[in-house]
Structure formats: structure tokens, C-alpha cells
Specification:
Helix 4 packs parallel to helix 10. Strands 1, 2, 3, 4, 5, 6, 7 and 8 form an eight-stranded parallel β-sheet that branches. The radius of gyration is 24 Å and the shape is elongated. By secondary structure, it is of the alpha/beta class. It folds into three domains: about 50 residues, no CATH class; about 160 residues, SPOUT methyltransferase, trefoil knot domain (Alpha/beta knot, 3-Layer(aba) Sandwich); about 70 residues, Helicase, Ruva Protein, domain 3 (Orthogonal Bundle), CATH 1.10.8. Strand 1, helix 4 and strand 2 form a beta-alpha-beta unit.
Amino acid sequence: MTVVSIIFKDFHQGNSIGSHNAPHTTNQEMYEIIKLICSYTKVVQISQETIGRIGHMDIRIVLVEPLYQGNVGSVARAMKNFDFSDLVLVNPCKLEGEARAMSSHARDILENAKIVSTLEEAIDDRSILIGTTGIAGSRYDFHLRVPGYSPAEVKERLTGRDGKVAILFGREDNGFTKEELKKCDMIMTIPTSEIYPVMNLSHAVAVILYEFSDLTGGDAPLADALDMRVFYEHLEELLDDIDYPEHKKEKTKLMLKRIFGRSCLLSREVHTLHGILNRAQRHYIREGQHDNDLIDEHA
């Protein structure tokens, strides 16, 4: 058993660490204390199982232009049921008595919800955007909705990470626009009957938050929103540099976004990928210059 295990076990069994009359110490505070002790005893490995939830996933629920105030109130109630509180509403309907009634004892979630006019405002600081859909898509927009993952599969990909995530829910009648779907790093769909796959908004939120309620965070920091935006811009630059066919660019950029999005990249991984892209660009430029020199020699 490690020093950390002994100390932490002692803590949970109620044995004395300091005065019994001292204020209550949270797990996170205890973790910092233990880490400090271990730094002096040269213990460098701290198991997540021993400490519990070291980091956490900051999960935001975003409703895009919800039409019915009853649904919004019910979403707030579902969020409180599963201990989530960050709700952002993009151009919502009027929220009056019905919304408050349907929220029941979750009125605080409803009243504290942030209301914004654009989706960009709702997701600006989020590292990963997860779009939800119950529709497989037609042959015209199928590529926007694949690959689709179940809530359990998405939870598995986020486990052990520490960062900011937004789960987006579309309009009750028309879902998301194509441009909104393109912003999503992952697509999540709840396995339902093929006969009637589309769920009520608040029911879908409840199912997903039930699955995510035991999501275990970790100390692996996701690349932040700015890092990811710059990275995708760098990928676009590379496509331009290599003269990638113009008519294929849109679908390829979306495919790359989904590949890297579902990978839940860490900060150091993004920096490494930037280095690879830079080397590829420099190599391509050198090769192009070399070819031009050969042409000039034979002109």
C-alpha cells in the first residue's frame, strides 16, 4: 500500500488528521494536502482509484431555440435529478408559468440558465461539442450525422479527462441546421426503436444525463477551445498548401474534425500535431521549390 493509500484510508475511516474540531475537509482539499506530503516523501504515483475523482468534466447543456417552455422546465428538472446545473438557452421561447411549474424543485436551474442569442456564445469556451440527434439523415446530409455514438460510448471517451464539454440539443421540430451540425465534434444518438426514433427533448436529456451522472473525470487536460480552433485552422492551411481538391474540402474538413473530436485530444497532443503539420508544410514547400529549380534548369 502506498503512503497516499494509507493517509487517504485513514482520512475516510475518521482517524485523526489534525484536530477533530477542525472544519470539514473536502476530498479535493485532502488531495492537495496528500500531494504536498507526498512531494516531500518522494511518492510520485497517486492512483485515481485511491483519491477518487481528481479532475472533472465540466458538462454544459445547450438547448438551441427550444419551442416549448414546458420542455425547458422539464429539462431543468432532469438536470437537477442527476446533479447538473450549467444550462444555456439559445433564443428560447418565452419562459413563464408553465416553465416554472414543469421545473418543480429545479426552479433555480431554470432561473440561473444563461440566455444567449447565438450558438457561438453558448459554446465559445467549450473544448468538445457533442450534438444529439435521433435522425439518421438523408443522402444529402448523412455525412453530417455520422459516425453516431451512444451515450455510453461517449462517456467512455470522456472518462479520465478534465475539461469543458457542451452537449447540444436541437429544436423540437427541425433539430439542427447543417451549419450547426458541422460545428459538432461528435454526434450522439440514443438507441431507440426504428419505428419511432425521435424522443421528447426533456426525455432525451434525462436519458443522457443518467448515463453521464457517474462519469469519472481525471487529470488528463483536454486541449482548450482556442487550441482546437487554431488546430483546425492549421489543418485547413495544410489542405490549401497541398492543393487539395476544392470540391472535396468541405467533407474532408468535417471528417477530420470528427476524427480528432472523438479522440478527445489533450493539450500536449495538439501541440505535437502542430509540429507534424509544420514539418509537412515545410517539406512540401521545399519539394515544390526543388521542382521549380529543376524546371528552370531545363528551360
